[in-house]
Each structure stands twice: as structure tokens, then as C-alpha cells.
Amino acid sequence: MSDRSTGAATWPRLKRPALVVAAVGLLFAAGVVALPGTAGAATTLGASAAARDGRFFGTAVAAGKLSDSAYTTILDREFNAVTPENEMKIDATEPQQNQFSYANADRIVAHARGLGMQVRGHTLAWHSQQPGWMQNMSGSALRQAMLNHVTQVATHFRGQVAWWDVVNEAFADGSSGARRDSNLQRTGNDWIEAAFTAARAADPNAKLCYNDYNTDNWTAAKTQAVYRMVQDFKNRGVPIDCVGLQSHFTGGSSYPSNYRTTLSSFAALGVDVHITELDITNAPATAYTSVTNDCLAVARCRGITVWGIRDSDSWRSGESPLLFTSSGGKKAAYTSVLTALNNGAPPTGPTTPPTTPPTVPPTTPPGGGSCTASITPGTVWADRYNTTVTVTGSTTWTVTIDITAPQKVSTTWNGTFTWSNNGNTMTIKPNGSGNTFGFTTMTNGNTTARPRITACTTS
Ligand code: XIL
User: Fold this and answer.
1) What does the alpha-carbon distance between residue 90 and residue 98 come to, in Å, rounded to a whole number?
2) Is 193 a catalytic residue?
3) Average pLDDT score over residue span 28-35
4) Is the pLDDT of residue 139 over 70?
5) 307 C-alpha to ligand 1 centroid (Å)
6) Catalytic: 85?
7) Other CB atoms closer than 10 Å to residue 369's CB: what's the count?
8) pTM for this model (two decimals)
């Protein structure tokens, strides 16, 4: 339609043509409106993910790069979520104890929210990137400092951060299925649930995630261990809403073919699942497509975050693992991801997860039977307390138990006990006295910590 007097396009029966033009322009800018010839297809990662039942497609962002217009051009165009790459970590937000520093994180949050992007907060409690003062702490003082940090930071960002990685990387690599040793872990096995509880109290509307790496392969001991922790939290009402799989398929680990089973199995516990730090060595289009399709196939997989925009932004830039070249060009993997998002959920593949893990739990060696060890608290004195442990399911068991320093076991009975070098982990085998053993623990000033069973294996 044209206006005869001016030759300009006109808008029939519209009272506010300028506003409509502006609105349509915004929709195009956000990639929501299809270009001619691509009917229904969104043109950016964020818009396409949003069209898939409101999913997000995010990226890690570094505050120092917000002044790089080549960087922000891609960021602003393509993504609908961000994760500060380092700016919300403990060393950044509390460099001196009780002196909080939010300027860089605030800049990222303001930039993102100004464009309607959601923010994944990363991370409130972690063994790594701790400020020096925290690295030097232990015991109840560290526990209190950690909880104060969680409370202060979650309170500062209340209403601005949609999801928090409350705890990051708390499990050990390898076949143990155990917690990672750290100063936080040594404050007691309940440090993770304590952090989640504090985060919930500080920001009741934020979704609270547990985030880890090497938890992509469903049969890996670490994956199974995180699965059981989340299951336990859900069973006991510990506040947890989501699980983050970092999915760094760099540095030697690769995309596992059972990844979708991992996503759907976590989802079946009643938590959302996020792919939080995706990068893949040399960015193969096939693996990026598979990850995208796996997420789309699982309703509770709510989004994907890549760990940086251009290859030059990557923490593993030598592996060129991202979706954009160092000069900002779209790589083949970018096109594959966008196409997969635009195609929507793939029709095949397991969407109903197994109700129980399909593998032998990591605490049971292949070929062995299974055993369960349970604690019965005993007499408590001013300076010490007794614990008995009963093993069921096997008579040829090995139980490992962690003791929180400075507590120390002083007496044992009805088992053969051996000790780790630091004295904090003991391994117990039968000594012919049956399936119940016991020990006395000196509190040495910490009257609250209690022994924690970390494994029961059979041989
Ligand atoms: C990395 C950052 O990308 C680097 O800039 C920093 O030097 C180290 O940390 N798992 C995580 C992320 O949870 O926080 C890490 O980020 C990468 C591994």
C-alpha cells in the first residue's frame, strides 16, 4: 500500500505507526521475526531457543570485554542468557572477608537485563577461586564464612539472578563416587545442603542449581554420585531446583552417547537440567547438534550456555571449541545448533528415563554384591561420643567413613580399621566379630560434626 501524496508506505487503520515500526524493528533485532524464505525459523540462538518452550541459549560473559563492540554485537544479537565467567566467584565478590565487591558482576547483570536476558549466577560455594583469606580457613569458622558469603551475595542479586549455581564441583573425579576433598568438604558433609538452605533463605525466587563437570556420561561414578545426592536432597526436602552439567567436552573428555539418558534421568528426579558451560574441542557440528537435540528431547532441559562467544574468548582457546571464530564469524557448529533449535525436538530417543540407574552403583565393584552401611549414634560425653555402624547385604564388606577434623577417633571395636594419612578417612573391614562395628570420636572442640559413611563396597 502506498500513500499517493508522498509515495511512502502507509499503515492501514493504525493509530501509532511509529511505535509499530519500532516494535517490529525490535522483534527483528531480537531475531524473533522470520526473514522472507525462512518461514517460522528464528535467526538467532536465543530467539530460537526461546521458541522451544521458553528455553535459554546463553554464554559466559567477561566484564572486561563489554567495551569490545565486536564482542557485544554478537552477545546482544545472539543470546538470551548470560553467566558471568569469573565476576561472581568468591574471590571476585568477597576479596577481603566481609568486604564485598560487586562492580564487575553488576555491569554484566545490568548489560544482560537491559536487553531482557536472564542471568545464571556462578557460583556461591566452590573449592576453587577462593580468596586467600578463605583458603586459609577451616572448620566452623569457614562454615560460617561460607554461609555468610552465600547469604550476602544471593541477597545482593535478589530479583536479578534467575538461577544460582549454589555449589560447584563438589565431587571427586574417577571411580570413587566420593566427595572431592576440600576445605569446605572438611567442614562436614552437610556443607552443600547448608549452602542451598542459605541461598533459598536469601533469595526465595531464584532457582538453585548444583553444577559439576564430568557428569555427562550416565555410567560414570561421578554422575551416579551426583544423581544420588540430588535424589537424597529431593527425598529430604533440601531446596534444590536444577542440576547444571558443565559439559566441557574439551581437555580430553568427549560427548558421550548416553548424554540424553543423563539429562532425562536427572530430570526424572524432579529438577530442571541446564547445560551450563558447553565447549567442544574443534567445535564439531555433529557433537554440537547432538547436544542441542538431547536438550530439546528432554522437557526439563531448560537451556544451554556456551562457555564463551568467540574462540579467542574461550578459557581453552587453543582448542577452538566455540560457535564463533576469533574474528566473530559464524562457524559450522553455529549453523548446526541454530538449525537443530529451529527444527525443534527430535522425534526419536529416550524421553522416559529409567527409574533406577541402569548401572551398578559406583560403590559396588563390578561382579560384587552390594552392601549398605548405616550409622547408629551412641553415647555422647562432653569431649567424645560413640558411633556404631551396621552393614547389611554382605559379610565381605569394606566401609569408608570420613571424620571432620579436628575430631579424631580414639577407640575402635569389632572391625579392622585403617587410616588415611591425615587421619580423617578410615577404612573398616570385618575382623570376625560380625557386621556391626563401632568407635569413639574425640570432639577436640567441634561438638557438632558427625562421622559420614562415604562408601560400602563388597569384595
Ligand atoms: C574458568 C574461567 O573460564 C577462566 O577464565 C578462569 O581462569 C578459571 O575458571 N568450571 C567452572 C568455571 O565452573 O567457573 C570455570 O571457568 C571453568 C570450569
Assistant:
1) 11
2) no
3) 42
4) yes
5) 9
6) no
7) 14
8) 0.72
